[in-house]
Amino acid sequence: MTDKPLDFLWFIPSSGDGSYLGTDQLSRPADPDYFREIATAADRLGYSGVLIPTGVACEESFILAADLAAHTERLKFLVAIRPGTASPAYYARLASTLDRVSRGRLLLNIVVGGSAQELAGDGVFLGHDERYDHADEFFQVFNSLMETGHANLDGKYIRALDARLGLPPVQQPRPPLYFGGSSDAGIDFAAGITEKYLTWGEPPAQVAEKIAHVRKAAAQRGHDVSFGIRLHFIVRETDDEAWEAADRLISHLSDDTIAAAQEVQRAQSDSVGQARMQALHNGRRDRLEVSPNLWAGVGLVRSGAGTALVGSPATVAERLREYQALGIDTVIASGYPHLEESYRVAELLFPELGIHAPVPPLRQSFGQKQVFGGGGHGGNVKAAAAS
Prior knowledge:
Blueprint: E1 7-11, E2 17-18, E3 27-28, H1 32-45, E4 49-51, H2 61-69, E5 76-81, H3 88-101, E6 106-110, H4 116-121, H5 128-148, E7 150-154, E8 159-164, E9 177-179, H6 184-191, E10 196-200, H7 204-220, E11 226-235, H8 239-249, H9 255-268, H10 272-281, E12 289-291, E13 294-295, E14 308-311, H11 313-326, E15 328-334, H12 338-353, E16 370-371, E17 381-382
Parallel strand pairs: 1-4, 1-15, 4-5, 5-6, 6-9, 9-10, 10-11, 11-14, 11-15
Antiparallel strand pairs: 2-3, 7-8, 12-13, 13-14, 16-17
Helix pairs in contact: 1-12, 2-3, 3-5, 6-7, 11-12
């Protein structure tokens, strides 16, 4: 356990957003202007960065990050490298340029697996474990280019002859590598290469087991790794209000939609992490609180991260401290809809976690305490002096 506040990132919903799962009611289409609103809010509220997802339904993460970097000041961008979809030399040029134009605000998310159907569309036909063997060779070249400007490899999957990178990244020796994968092959890969291992929001006992596995594998490689968790958040002023909001989020979700979503996830993904997410609820509405305040309702239809912490600020902070005691130092968070929930999480939860927003440069008074008075012509109300 550490007294250092958690590193807290938010999420850019680059395939679209909404207020209810499983319906088009109050949904929001993918819109770059909306993504900028979320990013500038996160930047102002004190989030350290944002995760930009990857996939055929999402905007391309490198290009979107470059746009958002131009509209923010401090925010970092966790973007995806998908080995097999482009050469390591090309990805090195993309990554170095984005780190340079953002002035060192790039984080790299290694995505090896996912939907077998999507991988086939990208021209990747390797089996689950073999994809990690390929990724190991990929990052031998990528890391060498980013750190030294040149690379050579005559491997089983990757052949790079006198590869060169002309312009180095801002961060030295390179932007940090993040990775999430629950299979033995994925953990073995992560143990030797990544700076940050990510887990989806499983119950603390399962997260503890996974962290121990990764730590042991990393120690055998002589490598240090830190840990993060990917979670949704439903935070309200009271526990009851938070649970009401969780119920409301799936209030338009039909059993047929749940069944269809679960079948797609089973049929298209060979991800061990995805199977672990599904096993938490097995598509059932009556078993969604899988651990105290850990709710699996999002995973009824959403692939990937499917759990949310639900409760008052004090309750959710207590649950996060339990994860922090296991070794988690980073949270990648989201909530529906993402713009409004970025404010709720920052305004309600951050004070409980000791996270402080950047100090605004504008003074709001000449020193008198003020009370919000509704925004009328007379401005705010000066608080009565204590007698």
